[in-house]
Design goal:
105 residues, alpha+beta, Ubiquitin-like (UB roll), 23% strand, binds FE2/S2 (inorganic) cluster
Length: 105
């Protein structure tokens, strides 16, 4: 199990537990995290799962992949630590990760 802290768009903080192998988007949806609409169901085509990942965990998740990069380019809320939650897989190394939900897509 891995613990992830989500900070919703209104700053509400929710700490949840996740099994390995899920995407961060799936974890958010399963735990009713506000601001993650996940309209495309994880196909990397809607950007409604836009998140900012705090360090040190952003470095571990790595840079966005090609399609993800294209989707993030459309966002006014793009930051250097932006990712799409559906493209980040929960691994042991992400235990303790803090995720800010953008929620304005
Ligand atoms: S759920 Fe649509 S891009 Fe992530």
């Amino acid at each position: 199990m891995v613990t992830i802290t989500f900070i919703e768009p209104d700053e509400t903080q929710k700490i949840v537990e996740s099994t390995l192998g899920l995407s961060v988007m799936e974890v958010a949806v399963r735990n009713n995290i506000q601001g993650i609409a996940a309209e495309c169901g994880g196909q990397c085509s809607c950007a409604t799962c836009h998140i900012h990942i705090e360090e040190p965990h952003f470095k571990i998740t790595g840079a966005p992949v090609d399609d993800e990069e294209d989707m993030l380019d459309f966002s006014d809320s793009r930051k250097p630590n932006s990712r799409l939650g559906c493209q980040v897989t929960v691994t042991e190394e992400l235990n303790g990760m803090i995720v800010r939900v953008v929620g304005d897509e």
